[in-house]
Amino acid sequence: MLEVHSTLDFLIDDPLYRTERPYIFTPAGGVMVDSSHPTLNTVRLADVPVTLSDIRDAAGFTLGTAGFEKTDHTTRIDLKRVQDVDVRDQYREETAAVLKQYLKAEHVYYYNVKTRKNVVFDPEEKVDLLDRLAPELAALGIHDFLMTGSQIHEAGYRFRVVNTWRPLLPVIEDRPLAFCAFRSIDPADMVVADRIFPHETFELYFVKHNPSQRWHWLSKQRQSELILMLMDSQAGGARFCPHGSFVNPLAGPDSPPRESVETRSIVIGKCVQ
């Protein structure tokens, strides 16, 4: 199994978080900033060296055991136009249909889709934070989504929040995605934080480093390869999947900047006995 050595940006073990929840607040009329000047408020990150194992030729990494898996899927959508509202809606509907069939679900409800580009924006450039189609930078910090409120395990139903991630390029080498095997995570290393925008607020986890964590990636991920990650209400298998991007030491100097598209959906099905 191919291994690479890089760093991931983890939440530091700040005593502040024992009494105060960390948060990220981006005000209306905020300025787009690059990763060297992040607007993170009380979320404090630090790069930690890690070893990442490639899952390209490995077996046994499934949603139920690891919290993530790769599946082959060639989209019928013109991803060159994914910034268009109608094309993004088509991609959302296609992904929901894929998840419904692949996971044998009764219902799939999309609630988020976004694109990311690993580029340096002009720090003086004003951005419209209400524009849900605007591309974002690669996400800062190892993180995971959080299942709360009505998304609970009840009445014999199983609720899964499933994140899909694929390149917008034919092959991606710059800033690929890292994901952590569920059974190597200590829940105490996951700290709840608030992500605050002018139009909405949601909760997520940031992750502290622990030497027991086992990190993975998919080398030379193609556009026809979809990574699935989940948050699961049902006990007995993998429940979540911390993830984030990293600097790939194998990426050549001519590798195009990473561009990707991701979706988040609530997948509802009957509990597995």
TrEMBL record:
Q: Which domain of life is it from?
A: Eukaryota
Which UniProt keywords are present, listed alphabetically?
Answer: Oxidoreductase
Q: What one GO molecular function would you report for this record?
A: oxidoreductase activity
Chain coiled-coil ranges: none
What family is this? Belongs to the asaB hydroxylase/desaturase family.
**Protein name, as recorded:** Methyltransferase
Organism lineage string? Eukaryota, Fungi, Dikarya, Ascomycota, Pezizomycotina
